[in-house]
Specification:
Blueprint: H1 31-34, E1 63-68, H2 77-86, E2 96-104, E3 107-115, H3 124-128, E4 134-136, E5 143-145, H4 155-159, E6 166-168, E7 173-175, H5 181-184, H6 191-195, E8 201-205, E9 233-236, E10 244-246, E11 253-257, E12 263-267, H7 287-311, H8 315-321, H9 326-346, H10 365-387, H11 392-398, H12 405-428, H13 442-469, H14 474-505, H15 509-518, H16 522-543, H17 550-577, H18 592-601
Helix pairs in contact: 7-8, 7-9, 7-12, 7-13, 7-17, 9-10, 10-12, 12-13, 13-14, 13-17, 14-15, 14-16, 16-17
Length: 616
């Protein structure tokens, strides 16, 4: 238990609540009642591995922070107190102070915002985490996270709208604000609240207003939509701000006041409209996921065309299946799926703990994606083994013992089902309200389109030479591959068109991503779009070929190269462009531009700067 000092000041103690029994979102504040008595009162929390129950009489009520923006002077004492108590390194801060500003001299105003974890009623971090490192407790309503259970995938940092979970690239794990539950157990407010100099931060039972406070609003300029998670933080802001406020942290976002008085994010074109290539910036920490998604979708597409084509009686596919090259084709699909799983693991901060990725199948799309792709790889591998005696060579050697058509067909269909589940949850992983650029159906069309285009290319690369060598109809399998490429390219093209229109009209961070796409990556974006159109037109033109001549083969080879280039550029853009709904940063702290500058000039080599050099 936390040791209370003999001279502890009175302002550090929690006050007895006098507020309502339900919160702003009409949910019971008493968490035992909210859970229907499923969890008992008086449970030990084993804080710091110590047993015992605190003497806080409101232990089972939802608690919350209250922030009075008018009082915050931006001293960062709350940050310092939090980091000191939790022994955080310089590059990790559970609480951070940013600001927005606007107006013109002399009527120029700034509003500071202190933000940590909001211990939400609907914690998306808990639902997203594949390892079940998060727990929503009926004690204080705290959302606690176990860094030792975490394997560092960072998905919670994607889904949280407030940038509360902090991924430590050195330790390879996430940690975050723990509400100072050890202090709450002895009736003390969290360390950040006790350290606040301006009486801006306060803490207590949710919706029970602190002394001398008039408002308990759920939003403030720069704060993401509270409907995403129902955060347990309330605000007071009486002083008026200009109709438009900007961020100092380099993010191309500003906030415009609507007719309803609410501030909403819009594009801030402070970096101009010049179109650039920025090819070097296409690389990111998510490079393993670029490879994982591309090779997994390629594997699924190739398996779908080759297996289902044979089941549907397409003669060219049946000829390929009966040739010696069907087994290598299946080996390629299994190998690509295996490569994808390996790349997915290398993306983790602690790759050796990959097995924990299936702990939260009830909620996490990451778990379901991983299980679907793993089962697809297993069933595709079993299909490969079952097809070994189906090959003419093995049938001739083994006679009637060499026929396993039922096993091969069953495992093939199971692989298709598992692959479809994996692809669907791969798509669901990116339908994140906190990342509006991804939260669009175009993500699904891109994934399916990639599976058809790259899968069709793999089928053509292996199938056409094989049938030409054995005297089969190579043109027929080429045209099947081209049909797949045409459908996939058209699907991707339509998705890109609709996505661009939607993001251009959106009043959220998605429109900011689209602005960056059209400026910083403008030429790369245009190249990807032109290549998508060229791939479609070339594939349609090749479909009209009457014979499999040298020109057709050369054009097909160029098409394959173009498809791979298009896929790589598109998927890299997908990851580097997304702008999350994070809180505003400051001029140095939580400023991506400053972090990039610090890495460029070597400041990141000084630990006290709080910027970590890229190592992953």
């Amino acid at each position: 238990m936390w040791k209370v000092r003999d001279d502890e000041p009175s302002y550090a103690f929690l006050k007895e609540p006098t507020g309502p029994e339900v919160n702003y979102y009409e949910a019971p504040i008493d968490l035992i009642a909210r859970t229907g008595g499923a969890l008992p009162a008086g449970r030990e929390m084993f804080i710091n591995e110590e047993p015992g129950v605190g003497n806080n009489p409101n232990r089972n009520k939802q608690h919350a922070f209250h922030f009075t923006a008018d009082n915050c002077i931006g001293c960062h004492a709350c940050e310092a107190a939090c980091s000191e108590k939790n022994d955080n390194p310089a590059h990790i801060s559970f609480r951070s102070v940013g600001y927005v500003e606007g107006g013109t001299y002399p009527d120029f105003k700034r509003m500071n915002i202190s933000m940590a974890c909001n211990h939400c009623d609907d914690p998306v971090c808990l639902k997203g985490c594949p390892t079940r490192a998060y727990t929503k407790h009926v004690e204080y309503g705290a959302v606690l996270q176990d860094p030792e259970t975490c394997f560092g995938c960072g998905y919670c940092t994607w889904v949280c709208p407030y940038n509360a979970p902090q991924l430590d690239p050195i330790k390879g794990q996430v940690s975050k604000c723990n509400m100072c539950v050890d202090r709450l157990e002895v009736n003390l407010k969290p360390a950040c609240v006790s350290a606040c100099l301006g009486n801006a931060l306060n803490f207590g039972v949710v919706d029970d207003l602190p002394e001398n406070r008039e408002q308990g609003k759920t939003s403030i300029p720069g704060f993401p939509d509270p409907e995403i998670t129902h955060p347990n933080i309330r605000f007071q802001q009486i002083k008026n701000m200009p109709d438009e406020v900007t961020r100092p942290d380099g993010m191309e976002v500003k906030y415009h006041k609507g007719d309803d008085g609410q501030y909403r994010p819009v594009v801030d074109q402070k970096k101009g409209v010049e179109k650039k290539w920025s090819l070097g910036k296409l690389s990111s920490r998510e490079n393993p996921l670029v490879i994982f998604t591309l090779v997994s979708q390629t594997s699924l597409g190739a398996f779908l065309l080759s297996f289902l084509g044979a089941q549907l009686g397409i003669e060219s596919i049946i000829a390929l299946r009966e040739s010696v090259m069907y087994i290598p084709l299946m080996a390629v699909t299994v190998g690509l799926a295996g490569l994808g799983m390996v790349m997915s693991a290398t993306h983790l901060g602690k790759p050796w703990r990959f097995y924990r990725g299936f702990n939260n199948l009830r909620h996490s799309p990451v778990c379901r994606e991983g299980l679907g792709m793993l089962l697809y790889m297993v069933f595709a591998g079993l299909h490969l083994l079952a097809m070994l005696p189906e090959n003419r060579v093995f049938t001739a050697l083994l006679g009637e013992w060499g026929s396993f058509p039922v096993v091969a067909a069953t495992t093939g269909y199971l692989a298709l089902i598992a692959g479809a589940v994996g692809l669907y949850y791969m798509y669901r992983c990116y339908r994140i309200p906190a990342r509006p650029f991804w939260n669009h159906w175009q993500t699904g069309s891109a994934f399916l389109g990639t599976a058809l285009t790259l899968g069709g290319a793999v089928l053509g690369v292996i199938g056409v030479p094989t049938l030409m060598l054995i005297g089969g109809d190579g043109l027929a399998i080429l045209k099947l591959s081209l049909v797949s490429i045409v459908i996939g390219s058209a699907l991707e093209g339509v998705g890109l068109w609709r996505h661009g229109l939607a993001m251009n009209k959106a009043n959220n961070e998605g429109s900011v991503s689209h602005y960056i796409q059209c400026t910083l990556f403008g030429k790369s974006y245009m190249l990807r779009n032109l290549l998508t159109l060229a791939n479609l037109l070339l594939a349609v033109a090749l479909l009209s070929s009457a014979e499999l001549g040298v020109e057709t083969l050369v054009a097909s080879a160029l098409l394959c190269g173009s498809i791979i280039t298009t896929a790589l550029i598109g998927r890299c853009l997908f990851y580097v462009l997304v702008v999350p709904t994070t809180m505003p940063g400051a001029f140095f702290w939580k400023n991506k531009d400053f972090e990039e500058h610090a890495r460029d000039i070597g400041l990141a080599n000084m630990p006290q700067v709080g910027v970590v050099a890229h190592t992953h």
